[in-house]
Write a structure and sequence with these properties.
With 282 residues, the protein is mainly β. Helix content is 10%, strand content 33%. The strands form two sheets. It has a five-stranded mixed beta barrel with strand order 1-2-3-5-4. The chain has a five-stranded mixed barrel with strand order 7-8-9-11-10. A hairpin with a 7-residue loop joins β7 (146-157) and β8.
Length: 282
């Protein structure tokens, strides 16, 4: 299936600086917690989000380096005015937090004990990825369901530059694994705006994706509104998913806005187009 050129608003409205992008908390499993004590090996307090790397040793003597995060806006960091001097290499910290579904060692902090005080989040992190809370609403008349899958990449097909496809073996929670085609549209656009390339879908790479599902007889197509793959920062592709899904079902849709990694995606200007459901080249 091919996707014709996408209609965008003025190019100045399209780009969202990476420094303003926010990482979603949905890749962290807030049904599980891990606790550990370790020493600081790296501290970064800047944008797009702060992180703290901590080296911990378990009872067997095995060492693990954890990367601590505090959500997209790093609320705990901002509210306590932490800066470049707050942590130094060698400081001891004790942490309880939520593990990442995508990358081992990434932790969303719930509580933290330091040599200058104890800290905890004021309220639970939002864990829902929904059209209402995180994205522009689906186009009027859209009848494709929105699903969320976790799984692993099995390869990619970048031969058709108009329709880059990532292949994923994954499952909706509580359901059996199935094979999905993740449609990303123009390959150059996918790289320039979301840094996604064919090599990112190396077999076995962890993937989490949420988007519109087109369930055909011979294949499952997912137009991703949100995706995290491997060690890449997650991407929100909300408006791009709206456009591709609209073309697929034959709806007219025009995007006026901007985005990028962590935002509701934008891109380059182009001409109008639409694609009938199930039509075109695979």
């Amino acid at each position: 299936m091919k996707y014709q050129s996408i209609v965008f608003g003025p190019i100045l409205a399209v780009w969202m600086p990476i420094a303003d992008a926010h990482h979603s908390t949905t890749i962290f499993d807030q049904a599980q917690t891990v606790s550990f004590t370790g020493t600081v090996v790296e501290w970064y307090s800047g944008r797009p989000h702060a992180y703290l790397r901590v080296l911990a040793t378990d009872e067997s003597g095995a060492e693990t380096t954890y990367t601590l995060e505090w959500g997209g806006v790093s609320a705990m960091v901002r509210e306590n005015d932490w800066d470049d001097s707050t942590f130094t290499v060698g400081d001891t910290v004790s942490v309880t937090g939520f593990p990442s579904r995508v990358r081992d060692g990434d932790i969303l902090v719930e509580t933290m004990d330091t040599n200058f005080g104890a800290f905890a989040i004021d309220e639970p992190y939002s864990s829902e990825v929904t059209a209402e809370s995180r994205f522009a609403p689906p186009p009027a008349g859209m009848d494709l369901p929105i699903i969320r899958i976790t799984g692993v990449a099995t390869g990619a097909d970048w031969q058709d530059s108009d329709n880059a496809i990532g292949h994923v073996r994954g499952a909706v929670e509580g359901e059996a694994e199935r094979d999905y085609q993740i449609h990303l549209g123009d390959s150059t656009f996918a790289y320039e705006n979301f840094y996604l390339k064919e090599a990112d879908f190396a077999p076995g790479t962890p993937v989490i994706a949420e988007g519109f599902l087109a369930d055909e007889d011979t294949r499952l197509i997912l137009f991703p509104r949100y995706m995290g793959i491997g060690d890449q920062p997650p991407s929100r592709l909300g408006q791009i998913a709206n456009i591709m899904a609209s073309q697929y079902v034959g709806l007219e849709f025009r995007f006026e806005g901007g985005g990028g990694r962590g935002g509701n995606a934008g891109g380059r200007p182009g001409g109008a187009g639409g694609m009938a459901r199930g039509g075109g080249a695979q």
